[in-house]
Amino acid sequence: MTVYIFARGINIQLHTRLYFEDEAEANAADPILKQVPGEAMRNTLIARREAKAKTPTYRFDIVLQGEGETVFFDI
């Protein structure tokens, strides 16, 4: 899934991708995710399933800069 971020103070739109942790086979076959170097960087694109939720709920934090910064793509 493609995610676009628009925010005040950001002069360009940011592009990233979102993958679900319980779709390991599809994630492993994804050509874009394969190009992201390093597992730590790939992990910034993975939505984690919330174990306590009664219905399927995922958490996907977008970090704009610093440690754990989400991978953004130039399009």
Task: Identify the notable features of this structure and list them briefly.
single chain; 75 residues; alpha+beta; three-stranded mixed sheet; two-stranded antiparallel ribbon; 3 helices; 5 strands; 21% helix; globular
How does this structure look, described?
With 75 residues, this protein is an alpha+beta fold. It has a domain at 18-59. The protein is 21% helix and 21% strand. It is built from 3 helices and 5 strands, in the order βββαααββ. The chain has helices at residues 24-29, 31-35, 39-43; strands spanning 2-5, 14-17, 19-20, 46-49, 58-59. The strands form 2 sheets. It has a 3-stranded mixed beta sheet with strand order 3-4-5, with no helix packed on it. A two-stranded antiparallel sheet has the order 1-2. Strand 4 and strand 5 (58-59) form a beta hairpin. The chain is globular and about 40 Å long. The two termini are 15 Å apart.
